[in-house]
Every structure is written in structure tokens, then in C-alpha cells.
Amino acid sequence: MSEITTAASQAVTAAVDGLSGWGGHLLTAPEVRRMTGTGPEDWARFARHWDDLTLDTFMKDGGTYRYRRYGHFHLDTGTGRLTAQPHAPYYQDSAVNPLNGGVRRHFDPLTDAFLADPLTVAVVRRLGDVFSRVEGVRHWDVKLHPFRIVTSSDQVGRPAPQGRHRDGSTYVTSLLVARTNVTGGESSLYDDDGTRLFAATLGEPGDQLLVDDRRLLHDVTPLTPLDPDRPSHRDVLIVDFAPVPADAEEQR
Predict the structure, then answer these.
(1) CA distance to 105, 162, 167, 178, per residue, from 94 (Å)
(2) Cα–Cα nearest to 82, from 245, 196, 241
(3) pTM exceeds cut of 0.90
(4) How does DSSP assign the chain, residue by residue?
């Protein structure tokens, strides 16, 4: 076994242990690069997809600081097959998302270039490997949400405008793709009693936070520009995983 393969295996094991234990884990950018077999040129190419996101027009706080797209998939971790589902509105119950939930939100689909990028598939497959080892299942419902949060002298960027929250899934992951001229954006995890269990600022492209959404709440602090005269934004890929019910899988 090569050194890189050994290091990647150790990163997966540590993630499984963290999720099985307290419910969270931070994968560092070098670990994610080893797990996906990628280098700096792959991440530079991947980041360019975020320039194609479109404005989120469903922000009930009136903010125009969030750009996004959305895609829905099924993943079989036994075969590695990632199957796109028909594009449809995204829905969260208002009990889960009191700010923007309770309505069917129509977001533009993921671009063909994003779907064809090898890093997209590699990230989802590696996450599926981790979660399947924790849960003992191989079929997953996967939702991909690339986000860009912009900020300026006129507008604070809010990665988590609803505050401390859950997403209503089984596992939620946040992968940093780029931080450009911003300060803030600290991610925190809490138990139901409000005790903060973890805090870190994702700083390097590839840093990825994994969270058991059933057990922990998460939050991200607002963003402001370092230099108000320059473009300022934070780009992340949020990937949600939930097991496919056995009866649904039998119908496939």
C-alpha cells in the first residue's frame, strides 16, 4: 500500500471514528486531496464553477448575498454509481428552516460542466464511503448545494442566516472551495443543550466539515470584506446524505 493510500485510509478511519463518537469530524485539505487523488490544478478548475451560480431569490430576510444551484442524486457506494434524479424544487419544513422553509424553492440545476468534473464525483463517492462505514448501508439520497456568499461595504454575507440549525438530513458536509477577501465564516457545532463542541474556520480549499445532522446543530458566523474595494466571497459545496429507505430501493 502506498504512502498516499495509507494516509487516505487513515483519514477515512478518523472520520468514521469521529462521526460514530461525538458526531462530527474535520477533514483537512491535504486529507481530502489524498482521498480524492487531486492536486492544486484540480481545485483551481473546480472553483471556476462557482462563477456560474445564480442569485437565490427566496431569501425572506431580503438579502441578495447568496448565489447557488442545486442537484439531487442517488449513490450506490457498492458500485460507486451516482445517478441523477429529475430536477425538482428543494423543500425544507419550516420547523427545520424557520427563515426560508415551508415553500418549494426553485433553484437552477447544476451545470453540465460541474456534473462532468471528476472532482464532483470523487468528493461524493468518498463521502459515501465514510457514511456507509458508519451506518452500514450502501444506498444514499444525495443533495448537492454549491453556494457563494458575497459581502461588501453595503451588505454583510450570512452563510447561516437562520442561525444555529439543522438541515433536516442525516449527514451534512461543508467543503470549502474558496475564500476571497473575507473575514469571518467560523463554523461551530453544538449539542441540543447548547454546548459548543467544536469551532474552526475553513481556510484552505478542500477543508471539509462532516456533521451528523441528527445529533448536532451547526452555525457559521457572518462575513465581511477585508478590503471593501475588492470583490469578497466565500464558496462552499454543501452535500447532504440520507439513507434510501429499503422499500424505495427495492423499486429501483
Answers:
(1) 12, 11, 11, 30
(2) 241
(3) yes
(4) --HHHHHHHHHHHHHHHHHHTTSEEEE-HHHHHHHHT--HHHHHHHHGGGGG-EE----TT----EEE-BEEEEEETTTTEEEEPPP--B---TTT-TTT-SS-B--PBPPHHHHH-HHHHHHHHHHHHHHHHHHS--EEEEEEEEEEEE-BTTB-B-SSTT-SB--SSSEEEEEEEEEESEEE-EEEEE-TT--EEEEEE--STT-EEEEETTT-EEEE--EEESSTTS--EEEEEEEEEEEPPHHHHHT-
> For the chain, what is the radius of gyration of the CA atoms?
17
Residue 99 scores a pLDDT above 90:
no
Q: State the sign of the Cα–Cα–Cα–Cα dihedral 177, 179, 180, 184.
A: positive
pLDDT, tens digit (0-9, with 9 covering 90-100), for 5-38: 788 899 999 999 999 999 999 999 999 999 999 9
* AA letter at 179: R
Task: Return all residues near 3 (Cβ < 8 A) that are at least 6 apart.
Answer: none
